[in-house]
Design goal:
The complex is a heterodimer of chains A (69) and B (567).
Chain A lengths: L5 H25 L13 H19 L7
Chain B lengths: L1 H9 L7 H21 L6 H6 L6 H10 L4 H14 L12 H17 L5 H9 L1 H34 L3 H39 L1 H10 L1 H12 L23 H19 L1 H8 L4 H17 L1 H14 L7 H7 L7 H9 L4 H37 L5 H28 L2 H26 L5 H24 L4 H4 L7 H26 L30 H18 L2
Helix pairs in contact in B: 2-9, 2-18, 4-9, 4-13, 4-14, 5-15, 6-12, 6-14, 6-24, 7-8, 7-20, 8-9, 8-18, 8-19, 8-20, 8-21, 9-18, 9-19, 10-11, 10-15, 11-15, 12-20, 12-23, 13-18, 14-24, 18-19, 20-21, 20-23, 21-23
Classes of the chains: A mainly alpha (69), B mainly alpha (567).
């Protein structure tokens, strides 16, 4: 039985977390919280979440079970 | 009940939103999923206890570091950075990097070529059964106790930070670890440690990035720390010329020889909790590269641990105080600095990821303890002393049950500490008794072929007993601190370092003297175990950038440059 790469699991984790964090960040842009965090104007959850999403997507594709050498 | 609950909820540091809870829950689902998936890959002893010895250098290296990167380590050293400033960085740099590189280049060939499954296993091959029994029993006993103490401490953190019930935190996290390690063995522990390593960085890296923006850059950060605390807080070496010149009460000799040499080398080269990850590497080159990769990332860990503590000195509106004063006044203690910085910058989603990083850090440390305990118990105690002739299948089953048993003992220890808090201090001191002498024994075993089985055993025993004796002496008569730690002003950390240094010297001295009085093993019995009678495989004509020695040199140069930058 061929083992699924650990990097695929990491890709899944980053992808799911990235989607959730980006979505929460976009939601906050349209529904600003009453007590925003410091540097809220930078919308860190949007770009950090997007970065995780991107890395997660790359790892999921690169290390997908069927694509491993 | 309700007013008490309301007060309890109001006192928590951060409040998780629905998306944060989903992120934390997804983490638990994923680690359990990995455990169930890998169950089919852990059918033999070699698979279960050594992960099939087929880990790549990257996986072994990240796991090697992750097993040490516990949540208490993250929070504790962020707190230390707030309290002591840049001095805290020594525990990541000089307290780790030289030792990790030494393990990679000098010691790894002997561990790997001997095909030992554990550090006590190496002692058996080199010095005989008595040395193995002494080190394996002490290691197994102390590992599960330490695991329990960490478990209790983490549950306490979860209560303060999130308002979670202590029993809930203990049982959910420990059962999760028990399930995924019992199912997939070391491979599952390693896979999850790599995942946890990535999550720790993903969750914690944003704090220093946003903190530096908030503080106005590195130069402004130093100015604000000088205003709020002292300019000395941004120096790592400049204040170590005397015992009284710095808040730790330590001299540079203690940092260099006590921490940088004895304790760091003892921990990183002989503590089976971390060495086990490297032994799972697929070949000698991967085994040598793994600690170097770990060292490269260890150089960067202060960015997510020490820097947040320093940033807090500059940007937090309130001054953090000691634990006792915080409890008395209702204020925030140093220990809460990382969650406070997390809550300061991280909104919904990011907060969940940050909390997941803390939980992941805790679970990776616990899984490291449990998997190392399982291997040492099964191979070095059960198979060596109780049942020598069972089948491989029997030992794998013993390993699975031992994993569950180890977790349950840890839980029991956690509850014991909950009732008798002073036990924590004693057990942490006990653990330090074994590290420094063990390093002396293993080092002489690998580098000096004249060291005899009797020398190894009596040196290890004498070093351990001398460490216990020095600790008891200071407990009974605090004035003895001036002799043990060379200064009456030394704090606990300084005492630990000097005690480690003396016990290592006792171990080496006794080993040498006894070895010269007893008959050495013939060279034919030392092949693969000792320098001078072991043929180290040549790396061949590979490119420079593929050689472990090259990357070790790169890491060493960066290590020196970083120390100069924060001198």
């Amino acid at each position: 039985m061929r083992e699924i790469s650990i990097w695929f699991f990491i890709g899944i984790s980053l992808l799911v977390n990235g989607i959730l964090i980006t979505a929460a960040g976009v939601w906050e842009i349209f529904h600003p919280p009453a007590n925003p965090v410091v540097l809220f104007s930078l919308h860190a959850n949007v770009w950090w979440g997007a970065a995780l999403l991107l890395f997660g997507l790359i790892y999921c594709i690169r290390f997908a079970p069927g694509r491993q050498p | 009940m309700m007013p008490a609950m309301a007060m309890f909820l109001a006192s928590r540091l951060v409040h998780l939103s629905a998306v944060d809870v989903v992120i934390v829950a997804f983490y638990f689902v994923l680690v359990l999923g990995i455990g169930f998936y890998l169950r089919g890959h852990a059918q033999t002893g070699e698979d279960f206890f050594m992960a099939g010895r087929e880990m790549t250098a990257w996986v072994a290296g990240l796991s090697f570091l992750s097993a040490n990167l516990g949540a208490l380590e993250l929070m504790g050293w962020a707190a230390a950075a707030y309290q002591y400033g840049m001095l805290a960085v020594h525990w990541y740099w000089i307290g780790a990097i030289p030792a990790m590189l030494f393990l990679a280049i000098v010691m790894m060939p002997f561990y790997y070529i001997s095909k030992t499954h554990s550090v006590p296993g190496y002692l058996k091959l080199r010095f005989g059964e008595a040395s193995r029994t002494l080190s394996s029993v002490s290691f197994a006993f102390m590992t599960v106790l330490m695991s329990g103490i960490n478990m209790y401490s983490m549950a306490l953190v979860m209560k303060v930070v999130l308002g979670w019930d202590i029993h809930f935190s203990i049982w959910v996290s420990s059962l999760t670890v028990a399930i995924y390690v019992a199912l997939g063995g070391l491979r599952s522990a390693i896979f999850n440690e790599v995942l946890q390593f990535i999550l720790i960085w993903a969750g914690a890296l944003l704090i220093p990035i946003l903190g530096l923006i908030d503080a106005g850059g590195w130069t402004n950060l130093k100015l604000r720390i000088a205003q709020n605390a002292s300019a000395e807080y941004t120096h790592a070496w400049a204040t170590l010329g005397s015992f009284n010149g710095n808040p730790m009460g330590i001299h540079w000799t203690g940092i260099v020889f006590g921490l940088g040499f004895v304790l760091a080398f003892g921990y990183w080269t002989t503590d089976f909790l971390v060495v086990q990850r490297v032994l799972a590497a697929k070949d000698l080159r991967a085994a040598k590269m793994a600690p170097i990769i770990g060292a490269a990332f260890k150089l960067m860990v202060p960015f997510i641990v020490i820097l947040p503590g320093l940033l807090a000195l500059a940007v937090l509106p309130t001054k953090l105080i000691g634990e006792a004063a915080a409890v008395a006044s209702g204020g925030h203690s140093y220990n809460e600095v990382l969650p406070l910085m997390l809550a300061r910058y991280c909104g919904p989603g990011l907060l969940g990821l940050g909390v997941t990083a803390l939980i992941a850090g805790f679970m990776s440390g616990m899984a490291g303890n449990v998997s190392a305990f399982t291997t040492v118990w099964t191979y070095d105690i059960y198979r060596a002393l109780i049942n020598q002739d069972a089948s491989d299948h029997h030992y794998v089953n013993m390993g699975r049950w031992c994993t569950v048993l180890g977790v349950l003992i840890s839980v029991g220890t956690a509850y014991l500490v909950m009732s008798f808090a002073s036990i924590m201090d004693y057990v942490q001191a006990l653990f330090s008794f074994f590290i420094a002498p063990l390093f002396g024994t293993v080092l002489l075993g690998m580098l000096w072929k004249r060291a005899t089985p009797a020398g190894g055993f009596w040196g290890l025993l004498a070093g351990t007993v001398s460490s216990i004796a020095m600790w008891a002496w200071v407990k009974a008569d605090p004035a003895a601190l001036r002799y043990v730690a060379l200064s009456p002003n030394a704090r606990d950390m300084a005492e630990n370092m000097y005690r480690g240094l003396w016990s290592w010297m006792v171990c080496v001295l006794v080993t040498v003297v006894v070895s010269y009085m007893t008959k050495p093993k013939p060279d034919s019995e030392l092949h693969g175990l000792v320098y001078g009678v072991t043929a180290i495989p040549h790396e061949g004509d590979v490119e420079l950038y593929k050689r472990p020695a090259f990357w070790a040199a790169v890491v060493a140069i960066v290590f020196v440059v970083l120390n100069i930058l924060v001198w």
